[in-house]
From TrEMBL:
InterPro entries recorded: DUF1641
Any Pfam family matching the protein: DUF1641
Protein name: Uncharacterized protein YjgD (DUF1641 family)
């Protein structure tokens, strides 16, 4: 019969053997991820050339001062309004229909172009010219569109105004 093993000897690798194993593992990882590492090195080189790494390094060395300045700035009363307005702006932009917004922005661009042309000509328009302009389908559409805009805006402002009156 075989003898029972009563003592197990743990073989502890030496520091040099551990280091050699670590290096072998790193070399394996380097060879398996060669493209990613090459890209990362290229990115780091570009960041260094552009001076961005120096800026980041400076920020990291002065992180306490930078954090203190940032906190002081965020605690300014106007900054609270800026942050709230930023959230309101993002909420507003999210509520807009992109197709309608595209149409309106194109119309505004074209309107600015027309306005620049009119300003170059420096012509005067009298009452008769205004009456004639109202018959122009493009002007009539723009005026009706603006009236619709003002109506919707006024309706919403009326809701807010009634909230202030009733204390809601």
């Amino acid at each position: 019969m075989a003898k029972a093993i009563k003592q197990i000897e743990l073989v502890q690798p030496s520091a040099q053997e551990e280091q050699a194993q670590d290096i072998a593992g790193l070399l394996t990882q380097l060879s398996q991820n060669r493209e990613a590492i090459t890209s990362a090195i290229d990115i780091m080189g570009q960041l260094q050339k552009s001076g961005i790494l120096d800026i980041i390094q400076g920020l990291l060395h002065s992180k306490e001062k930078v954090a203190s300045i940032a906190i002081d700035q965020v605690n300014q009363p106007n900054m609270h309004n800026i942050i709230r307005n930023g959230f309101n702006t993002v909420d507003f932009l999210g509520s807009l229909d992109p197709q309608q917004m595209n149409i309106m922005m194109s119309a505004v661009t074209k309107g600015l172009d027309e306005s620049a042309e009119v300003m170059k000509r420096n012509e005067k328009t009298g009452v008769l010219g205004l009456m004639k302009a109202l018959r122009d389908p493009d002007i009539n559409l723009a005026i009706n569109s603006m009236l619709g805009f003002l109506k919707g805006m006024g309706r919403e402002m009326g809701k807010e105004h009634s909230h202030y009156k009733t204390g809601e």
